[in-house]
């Protein structure tokens, strides 16, 4: 029995996740494969219930599952809590605890939404980029880190650090993924200035030469990459990069498509995987049935593809989404004037029917 730990989290997280579960239940019927769902608490709701963002029981149950489906965590209610108690710590704790070192963030342009991009349609039409972001190293987790006081002066410190094995494993992820796509990796670093990046570039080149000589590889400094993403996004197929650069570039890449609210992600390790929409908990629209469930539904599709190896069914879900968008179905966030607006649940149902 395939066990899915469900962490709806806060805000619209609960609403969009229930639509993703609707699709997974349908998938379970289609595949004739039973799926078991266990609901867990993390984020603000866990702070309210247990006094901490990532309770041990949640991490333990997530470790015991075959895959985790997460909604979103956070909200203004918890913003002023101290660092260790913020809802975001649940995400960092899950990433580290499940060793989810590879964050895969596709930025796909849906034809029906080309006009939603802030860039010219000829620049963005057909965009299909995947950012492969290292997720458990770099400046997010390096020590020392903190705010320290020395001789009466406060100093904030973070440490960017990477080991060779950390770079190797994420490089393998990117090259393997590229082989299933347009066979091209752009490795993004700051090797003209950062030591971590110099090592990064060296290791990526070695792995490329040794195991993937047939994959096209280029290197780009992160400042240039952020420019090229808006100048000529179709240059990119797979972007391989470290944690913080990936955080920034994946937001940029997803916004090119005009639909950051529609994009899924997968965070994968050797033995665990977590799937979640790229968007946050959107407290301003929570509880109103306005949220767009597509990012969560496509995250469920990624779960089927990567954890259950059901690539064909994942493609079908993607096409079902494209289909309903093509028919003009819109939630409020992507509707233009005069278009009929569906609720979160209606959108979920339409996609289920299209399957
Ligand atoms: C993301 C988010 C997180 C990150 C935050 C919420 C900790 O921005 O998943 O991209 O920086 O990784
Ligand atoms: Mg981010």
Description:
This protein is of the alpha/beta class and 355 residues long. The chain has 2 domains: 1-98 and 272-355, Isopropylmalate Dehydrogenase (3-Layer(aba) Sandwich), CATH 3.40.718.10; 102-262, Isopropylmalate Dehydrogenase, CATH 3.40.718.10. Helix content is 41%, strand content 21%. The chain has helices at residues 13-31, 44-50, 56-64, 88-97, 121-124, 164-179, 195-211, 222-231, 243-256, 294-306, 311-326, 344-354; strands at 2-9, 35-39, 67-72, 102-108, 128-134, 142-150, 153-159, 184-189, 216-221, 238-241, 264-268, 273-277. The protein has a 10-stranded mixed sheet with strand order 2-1-3-12-11-4-5-10-8-9, sandwiched between helices. It has a two-stranded antiparallel sheet with strand order 6-7. A hairpin with a 2-residue loop joins strand 6 (142-150) and strand 7. It is globular. 46% of the residues are buried. The model has no long low-confidence stretch (mean pLDDT 96). The structure holds 3-isopropylmalic acid (IPM) and magnesium ion.
